[in-house]
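[agent] plan:
  1. take the single chain provided in the ticket
  2. run structure prediction with default settings
  3. attach structure tokens to the ticket
  4. add a short note for the reviewer (M.T.)
[agent] executing step 1
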Amino acid sequence: MRNTDTVTIDDKKYTINELTVKEIMTVGNALMESDLDLVKIKNMLPEYLKLTSSITLDELIDMAPSDIKELIDKWKEVNSSFFDISRQVGLTDFLAEFKVALISLAKAEFGKLVVALSKKGT
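[agent] step 2 finished; step 3 output follows
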């Protein structure tokens, strides 16, 4: 049976799902085909967010970093078996590359947000 749990952020409850093996393979294949291209990953996010949680990309973008950390921590907890198996079969290098790509995407999006906000003030 698939693990699920909830996180409450700003009085809204979000469900966090454990990924199935099929979903993990689908996401992994898509990421490999994307060559970790940030634009491609950004375009895939809404679809894959639906697999992992009840949160939408728009809701995620409106969250504070501390809220996102709470979601990620819960996602890691719910999917802990996946991370245990990943370490055992040597997927940690790929996961590290994916993490770097996500951080780069977040930085790029944050930069765009700062530029947009600075233009509103002028």
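[agent] step 4 note for reviewer: The chain has six helices and two strands.
[agent] ticket updated
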